[in-house]
Design goal:
Number of domains: 1
Number of helices: 2
Distance between the termini: 25 Å
Number of strands: 3
Helix content: 25-40%
Radius of gyration: 13 Å
Strand order of the largest sheet: 1-2-3
Oligomer: single chain
CATH superfamily: Methylated DNA-protein cysteine methyltransferase domain
Structural class: alpha+beta
């Protein structure tokens, strides 16, 4: 199941996409082109928002939200 949420960052609006309990996409966007999903992946959204809040407050987060990255082998190595 896919869930979408939005985060208002100091750099602009960020769309968070989660699938099956993992963050799969984090992109800057100009508009809220869809409704935020109901608590389908609330734990991963909470962790991601906490990570972003920590980062944008000027601190280095000491954890990473659960992520499932999709890309070529090269892309996965450099991420």
């Amino acid at each position: 199941m896919v869930s979408v949420h939005f985060y208002d960052s100091p750099l602009g609006l960020i769309r968070l996409t989660c699938r099956n309990g993992a963050l799969t996409e984090l992109v800057f966007t100009d508009l809220r082109d869809e409704e935020s999903s109901d608590d389908l992946d609330s734990e991963i959204v909470t962790d991601t928002v906490r990570w972003l809040d920590t980062y944008f407050s000027g601190s280095e987060p000491d954890f990473l939200p659960k992520m499932k990255l999709h890309g070529t082998e090269f892309q996965k190595r450099i991420w």
